[in-house]
Amino acid sequence: MKLVVITPSQNIENEHYILGKMIDMGLPSLHIRKPKLSPDNLKSYLKEFTKGQRRKIIIHTHHELLWNFNLKGIHVSKRSRKKQFSFFILKAKLHLRRGGFVMGTSCKSLSSLDENYRHFDYVMLSPVFTDPDGHRPSFNASTLKKIIPVYPGKVIARGGATLDSIQVAKETGFAGIAFQRYIWNNPEPVACFQQILDRFNELGIPVE
């Protein structure tokens, strides 16, 4: 099952060390979500990772930086999807000059999932889980168990994920799960990530 970690929106102390450590521990997909960073600042941010670590990174903004770094891919927002012509041009340029990268998006409704599923390598659906921080799911659990298997191999559960959510995501039919607040609200994010890996192992779920 796909395992995703999304960066905190605001920078934290020792952030690059923490993120790099997670990648070295086996994190297959690190999503860099830094909406306030300019292209130059994001470029500087990416330079702090090793070349090997960058191959696990997916960026949410300034997608043209895919040309500068050997990144895993890009994440496309709803706003970018709506700019159909400019998005088409960017996608064509990226495939022409680079190729071989992952492209995904996010959806907050089942209708949006159905509309975008075929056009992306993965789709994050949110919010899916309830957690102590107040996340409330937008979808009925029984409905998800019927709907998600219709879209095999691509849908990643996001929003409110905790350790207990891993088994739920697997049983529901999700192809993966994304963690953000659960890790960054923990005073020891690396140890928290290790617990996530351990839980995958306990459940016998391979990390992709």
Give your account of this protein's structure:
- With 208 residues, the protein is an alpha/beta fold.
- It has a single domain, classed as TIM Barrel.
- It has helices at residues 15-25, 39-47, 51-54, 78-82, 84-97, 110-116, 141-147, 163-172, 181-184, 189-203; strands spanning 2-6, 29-32, 57-59, 73-76, 102-107, 122-125, 155-157, 176-179.
- The chain has an eight-stranded parallel beta barrel with strand order 1-2-3-4-5-6-7-8.
- α7 (141-147) links the parallel β6 (122-125) and β7 (155-157).
- α1 (15-25) packs parallel to α10 (189-203).
- The termini are close together.
- The mean pLDDT is 91.
Write a brief caption for the model:
The chain has 208 residues and is of the alpha/beta class. It has helices at 15-25, 39-47, 51-54, 78-82, 84-97, 110-116, 141-147, 163-172, 181-184, 189-203; strands at 2-6, 29-32, 57-59, 73-76, 102-107, 122-125, 155-157, 176-179.
Give me the secondary-structure topology.
Blueprint: E1 2-6, H1 15-25, E2 29-32, H2 39-47, H3 51-54, E3 57-59, E4 73-76, H4 78-82, H5 84-97, E5 102-107, H6 110-116, E6 122-125, H7 141-147, E7 155-157, H8 163-172, E8 176-179, H9 181-184, H10 189-203
Parallel strand pairs: 1-2, 1-8, 2-3, 3-4, 4-5, 5-6, 6-7, 7-8
Helix pairs in contact: 1-10
